[in-house]
């Protein structure tokens, strides 16, 4: 039996509820169980990797929480407590993986977003950093087998492949085998399956050298840092840019600086302001986090930042290999790199002395993680800056309503760049009214003649164009002209999308696929017809209209491989393509001086969504994509195809009048008591049985009303906008309040009650949702 040293540690585990657990530390492991270190601990009959979040010595009981899944006798003292605790099995780290700052941030985030501390820590330290030996064997649970029974015969996505492999196996499978079978992204998916109870981790071993002492990295440079990048010099700033940099610089001397909101029209030079602020931060011996919403924005921006700051820049995102990401992490932790560029997870970068947090395109929904833990990287960036006494700068041409309102009320300091660099004009916007096109031709064109002619002119003049269609696939609906039914997903209450090139119908909710039917599943009619269009069909129409043009398509169907974003964007920047078309990936953040035309094929698809942010998202997307045109010497033009040119979101984007949009939308939000005038949370109760989901939602609503003590308004229960997903019925409850503390308190008490009653795992709680779909 191992010698005890009297130390107890509090351990955060993923997938084990919102509690933490207390374990005893054997004497040989005492120096390896500091806060922030990983430990292997017993949980039931299995083992799990957790993180030490606190520890106590000889004089008192443990730091609180659960007790290795054992009940503690009531009325017993410290000796009795220690007698029922279980021992830490292994402690692989010689140095804490997590810094005190990141531990504090993840603790705050787990409390605010109502998830387990362990889950939040796993989001802060991606699985690729922990090494391939983190989980030795995995087996499927009974709930996971029920999930497999509902899958279609063809396993489509990573999630389905992993579940099928585990279901078919006679026993547990090693993690390394599962990662090979699952493909790209399998590690993160496997962790989520474990958190949701569909698979069980039977044994975990030490996780490589993730917890070694900080050291300078060696070996080849990562793809994020490779390449011959010439040193860059700052552009000569305009007076407006210089005023913004000066204001931020002055804030470095404040003990508790108020966040900035930088609103600048597209092409006004916000990036130069950010880089000027980073330079000032580095001059003061501090580090900076530069956040972007998507990894597609990192290649070109990364080259620019490295040209200015050299090897002091690290890039962190999921497109890097495990080794590359580990090296970048270690460079940051050791202080070798002092600037980090990346998407939302970069908010957890281990910078020793943080001085600046920049959140570019702060309005973007991609900063919000859509699965557990459902945190918002933008908002955590503000929290981290506040705790560090650092300066936070949020920037956008189309700030979110929440940020705009905070600037109006003085919670943020507003900085403005109202003009484009060099006095260049904003692009001229033309509207193609699709209602008139239908009257004239009897159909809605994919590409109107006006847009087609403008594209031909650009190709003839060796200029470039961007075309936006914010919908994937060939056609979003397969319609039976006989009975009016559409071909839907068997597991989700949505239509399946035709992807003609690959010959499949795909569900964009669950990833399942099937061959297009010959006869209508409802009436057996043969009159099935694709209706509408997506990016795949739009590309085909572009190639038909412009047979000589070099066209690149950029959507999630064409950028699946590593560095696919980078290859397409760099080729377009070099002039290898005439037209870049795609979904919202092409709409924001890119600066291509050769682009003189932007075409928007369909603006109305987002306006009709059952979501209070639908108008805001439409206005932001239109304004952002229009801003890609005319950034060089040649003036830009935008052609917008729409059936609703009079809608205020579309009209404000066309006239490029942000204040007009804010005025109308804020008035509507105030009347309906939606954010930014209240704090909102969504709770989804899920079950394969509708009656079960309805009953859980009823209990949720009742508990939130009770614990809210009349200060939390509850809407519902009601079916969610997507009422069935992945074979589960979803009943929605919305909760809103004027006080964040009151809302989080009521939801936390509700979750505690749900855990006691055994149905907490069937709930999804989303605080500050960016979408209600």
Short description:
The chain is α/β, with parallel strands linked by helices and 773 residues long. The chain is built from 23 helices and 29 strands.
Task: Give a written overview of the molecule.
- With 773 residues, the protein is α/β, with parallel strands linked by helices.
- It has 6 domains: 4-123, GIY-YIG endonuclease (3-Layer(aba) Sandwich), CATH 3.40.1440; 135-204, Orthogonal Bundle (Arc Repressor Mutant, subunit A), CATH 1.10.10; 239-422, P-loop containing nucleotide triphosphate hydrolases (Rossmann fold, 3-Layer(aba) Sandwich); 424-472 and 535-668, Rossmann fold, CATH 3.40.50.300; 475-532, no CATH class; 679-767, Ribosomal protein S10 (Alpha-Beta Plaits, 2-Layer Sandwich).
- The protein has 23 helices and 29 strands.
- The strands form 7 sheets. It has a 7-stranded parallel beta sheet, with helices on both faces.
- Helix 9 packs parallel to helix 10.
- The longest helix has 19 residues, at 690-708.
- The radius of gyration is 27 Å and the shape is globular.
- The termini are far apart.
- The relative contact order is 0.08.
- The model is unreliable at 58-65, 67-76, 131-135, 203-209 and 216-228 (pLDDT under 50).
